[in-house]
């Protein structure tokens, strides 16, 4: 293989294309001498175990030019023409890959591989004769893969580049201001990877002005109008418009919807629009307008541009994890033109709506009552005519420990045609924790079946399911619920309801082949009407005049016709039929009237057509018949139809031709060879009468008559005539315990669709994480939501669901679950010894208190092996988070554990922790911390008091020793005193220092200084050095 790949690199052109589940090409073109390698890259799958390839939906088998490489990629090349194989059959097709791991499988998007091709021209250029300075136009059309490039040649040489020569990408050549030199032979050349083709030659003849007749007298004419164009997004679109007039008209473009033309639309040449890379927003109607200069004359031409686009996923489904028995919802939205259809796959296999799995009209996937078997990869596939897109999400199913096992011995017994008794036994494991059951059922056969469910109380192990269809198989299973979640589903059981009498009668047809008999024919009842196996039919008949003398015949359930013999000719009769099952006869049909032929007129009047059968639809009747016995005499048939009364006329004078009253439809004349006709335009669920007669040139024959009803209109109205159902009303919620809440509501008062079930959305109040929102489904107007957290507020909203359409959710209703015992013990328990006889205990509240903590319980003991009731107990109020335990023994190991208590009870205790109390200490040798601190503080206070007393004593002594005449001395030496005071700053201004200062005599040099200098010096020193209070200084001066 590697050698082949090496040769491919050398000899061929190797192209590689990656296949994933994301956006990417939907088509690949394999050109001659090219090798295409498809790589399977599904990043969603971890460590793919196996990669397989499919071609056109079937598993691919390796061939010489189509095989899987060792790395899992797919090698595609063209088979040589001399290999005897059809090269297109070998290589062309739709390819996809599937990657599988231990969790599931994922499929890629599909890519279509086509071989390059260039078809023959299906539009050739035509010759023209144009006046000089006029306009010429040539066009050719050809298809190919890849799209061919079209160029033009004149006289088998490439066209020169001139502004007058305009080549459009769609194969059009425009020549404006035609010159005599433009005359010649033109052809187009189409080239792609497959080959090169030349069109036929077209001759352009140029004449002098005035030689051609002007058919429009100079009026403005659009001779090349834009055409309706459908194109794939990304390709080039051209809207052509060429007009002529005298003088040359002015051409402009607008959009019909009034929107401005996109800025990426350019003018090609003089009057054409070109969009190089079309997108959906370019779609619309474009109007070309040609105005004749200096006049109000104009003409317009319009064309629609439709841009197709392959699907793209606009809303991707999210990977989710759900607990067992909950609801998984994947939302997927896609865009494209035309609008894509959305379908789902699980692990590479298509999913169908049935029972628990529901694919909604808008593309969402809902899975109810999920189990382990639902885990896997889910893919949203969007597909339209241009290709497909896909997105992948993963569903993981979580199973908690301690859940109950599945209910046992589930059995179902049909009690009547519409009631089944379902019973079961409680699970074998964790049965005491069960808080309720749910019973689920659906039709066992068919597709798009709806699953219904009932919530059942814990003390119930049987339930009668009512309002079922007769003679129908149903499948039942049961799920048990505890506070932790749901069990596995039980084994499913299937039971068939009993038969009932038929819900309707067959619709019969009457005809006569002789004057003394009536042939009665009918069609078997549909299974939904028979309510069981039809075992026999009863045909009642009597004359119109003797309605109380009814004769009857019974035939077997396999019969579809009966002939009544020995009747009177030219006599009016009425006939009806009833069907029976083992449960008895159902209601009979309406009376159908018929007149036997006249014995004297048999040779001339055609007999009635035989085997008249009518298949009723909602708004039409399909009538079939066979030729009468004397069919050689007939020319054709006449068919009549009318809405019939419940009881026809009982008059003896029942006409024997088509003149019996007024017929709304007919006569419809049909040829002799016609044996079937459909009467349309009828109302649903109405009683109609159909009559078919054969006729010849002279007479209308005897009638074959049918009487019956059209089918009832389906319950679902057309989408355009209905809206989504309204949400339920009067929604109420009530707590049913610490882990469950009852929810009930009323059906909306007004609705245009039939509501089949309800979806309940549940989430903790104020939740912003959408992945924690859960959904439940209920076919009743109530549900028990279980598996909730205790003492938690929840918000509920209910949605009404019709068949194929869902309504909006209602407003949110709040309700809280009741409190419960704490699920966890107090956290972060810490123990610290205080002294030989006490321990300090600290903790934090439980992580799951399940209510308001009213009390904390501390258990402690020196013996760990004792039972809890032997431990010492200390309780603290719920708002405290520390405590001191006294009365312990010194130097002893103690064990502690804690529990929390709500109004419901005590939760689990924490893990045991131990602490060692301190040993006893000698009082002489050691002082505790508090004693040492007190001593130090007392000593310091004593020393401060002594120092204060000494200062006060010195101050008093100084004041007593001052002589009486010291006032003048002090005043005369005031400035000197202040200078000396500043000099003694470092002595902290105590009273003893002050006394020494005043007793000292001033120095001589200080006396000789001027007063102003002394003052300045003193002030300077005071500003720089002193910190004494100003009032203290003044007091000293006055002394």
TrEMBL record:
Cellular component GO terms, alphabetical: plasma membrane
GO biological process, one term: cell-cell adhesion
Location relative to the cell: Cell membrane
Region annotation (Disordered) ranges: 710-733
Signal sequence region: 1-16
Residue ranges constituting the Fibronectin type-III domain according to the UniProt record: 406-500, 502-599, 608-716, 727-820, 825-920
Record flagged with keyword Metal-binding: no
Stated family: Belongs to the immunoglobulin superfamily. DCC family.
Protein name: Immunoglobulin superfamily DCC subclass member 4
Organism of origin: Latimeria chalumnae (Coelacanth)
Gene name, Swiss-Prot/TrEMBL: IGDCC4
